[in-house]
Amino acid sequence: MPHAARPTVTLHDVAAAAGVSVSTASRVLGGSTRKVAPEYEARVLAAATALKYTVDAPARAMRRAGDSIPKKAG
């Protein structure tokens, strides 16, 4: 018998639980080179752990692929 699917935890959920912006949560969880205050980083990591957040690899790949498509001049 299949088990019940667990609810999807989004980056927005993690940011809200940590009390930070989605951008800050993204920087922490995405390994950005931009600096984040240590207290915010700790809050984001704790929230991600508590919520059992996992990165959606296909969504991340789509986002990165979209960044690499050159725009038409015009």
Query: SSE order in H/E notation?
Result: HHHH
CATH topology term: 434 Repressor (Amino-terminal Domain)
Structural class: mainly alpha
Strand content: under 5%
| Helix content, binned percent | 55-70%
Q: How many H/I helices?
A: 4
According to CATH, what is the class?
A: Mainly Alpha
How many strands in all?
A: 0
Provide the domain count. Answer: 1
Largest sheet: none
How far the N terminus sits from the C terminus, by CA atoms, comes to 56 Å
Task: Report the uncertain regions.
Answer: none
Assembly context of the chains: single chain
Radius of gyration: 15 Å
Mean pLDDT metric: 83
CATH architecture: Orthogonal Bundle
* Basic shape: flat
Protein topology:
Blueprint: H1 11-18, H2 22-30, H3 38-51, H4 57-67
Helix pairs in contact: 1-2, 1-3, 2-3
What does this structure look like?
The protein is 57% helix and 0% strand. The mean pLDDT is 83. The chain has four helices and no strands. Helix 1 packs across helix 3. 16% of the residues are buried. It has a single domain, classed as 434 Repressor (Amino-terminal Domain) (Orthogonal Bundle), CATH 1.10.260. The N and C termini lie far apart (56 Å). By secondary structure, it is an all-alpha fold.
